[in-house]
Write a structure and sequence with these properties.
Length: 126
Amino acid sequence: MFEFRLDTRSGVPFYRQIIDQIRFGIATGQLRMGEQLPTVRSLAVQLKVNLNTVIKAYKELEIQKILETQQGTGTFIGSETVNVSAKERRNKTKSICEEFVNVAAVYGITPKQLIEELQKNEGGNL
């Protein structure tokens, strides 16, 4: 099952983070057409957010035809193809790297040390 995570420090609204995670999940094949998403209530409880936050994310994705809600059965990934632009991918990579470097700096780890460790693990799991 796809795991949602929210970053409270990013400054990005929670509903937007949910939307982005679903879009990236579809674009990368982690979420497939017809796959059922958690109910609004269960995702809100899991993420510890207001129900309206999840409703807003799901509704926006329904409008874009990325999600389909079937009354009584749930919310599913629709048949609409999702492409993540190169610019959007670069922005997300930059954001992840900035956060990664900032966290590492708190522990006294330099960017050079991070790069060396990443190169050792290239192609494998950390």
